[in-house]
Amino acid sequence: MILQCAVLGFLQGVTEFLPVSSSGHLVIAQELLGWSDPALSFDILLHLATMAATIVFFRTEILSICMEWFLGLFSAKGRALPGWRYGWSVIIGTVMTVFIAMAARPLIHIFFSSSLFVGFALVLTGMILGYGSVIIPKDLKVAPSSGIWVGLAQGLAAFPGISRSGLTIVTGLRTGLAPEEAFSFSFLLSLPAIMGATVLEFLDAGSVKGLVSSLPAGWWVGVMAAFVSGLAALSVLKKVVVNGRWRVFSVYCFAAGGLVLFLNLIRG
Description:
There is one protein chain. The protein has 13 helices and no strands. It is globular and about 60 Å long. It has helices at about 1-15, 20-35, 40-55, 60-70, 80-105, 105-110, 115-130, 145-155, 165-175, 180-205, 210-215, 220-245, 245-265. It has one domain (about 1-30, about 70-265).
């Protein structure tokens, strides 16, 4: 069980941030290795670990945005600061994400048990990343309009096999955001979504006592693996986005998706 926790934690941390779909890889890993779904309590902790990695990585930006946005609530000077615009962009993007994700929630639950769907979705992710590699970068800053489009993309990425980071960053680049802006906005926008999804999972799971009692042995190993691998993956992805080197991940998603589809085919 400790090995399973460590592997799932590592996969969650790496694939949550690299543009290869964390949900899709967890579905594939569990099916190929014959593992049962991890306890909901463990899944919640893994998401909290990757959220913590995001907060640590972007701690300076988060503090600046929050301070400037709150200042904008009380003064015209504050509303002229970048954090005021950025904060509203995150809020608008989150609203769009919730709208799409809640509308599609019944379908999302169905597809989480289908490795065949994950295979097709990974191929689609490969196509999206391939498109991202040919976008000519611009230098626009985050604005409410980009929040709308990136928020919609994030909602669609709730389907397993669709990379959240890949789809949101490519969408940001397509709206004209500078590469570093698209990278930062993708993950800052993810924080409210992850927190909201975690709260929903927590409510589904029941009491805190029930959550704690259902944690698998070695759960802390998985949490640490998710946090550390998540921080490393963020550093790698920032370089990928800034340098426009999407192609390797595009090829990987095509290969992974093709393998999953082939395995489903030979199984009948």
